[in-house]
Design goal:
mainly alpha, about 50% helix, single chain, about 0% strand, about 80 residues
Length: about 80
């Protein structure tokens, strides 16, 4: 089922982010065992690391996603 996201002002949205709160994943994605869903959730969690010094770079996240795509497809050079 689709959960309508909250329509927050940019100020309230910023407060939520600073407090470490994120919009929850839809239930079907949260419980999914699909490797593509698992990979994207992990990448998002990496992006949302609260302490910026611990947050991985965009390059690291990109490399992670490409590595997961290779595992999922079984291809060394998957079509991006």
């Amino acid at each position: 089922t689709f959960e309508k996201p909250k329509n927050l002002s940019w100020q309230d949205s910023g407060k939520e982010l600073i407090a470490g709160r994120r919009t929850p994943y839809p239930k079907d994605i949260e419980k999914s065992k699909d490797p593509s869903h698992v990979a994207v959730k992990k990448a998002l969690d990496m992006c949302w690391t609260q302490k910026w010094k611990e947050r991985p770079s965009a390059r690291l996240i990109s490399d992670y996603l490409i590595g997961q795509l290779k595992k999922i497809t079984g291809e060394e050079k998957p079509d991006l």
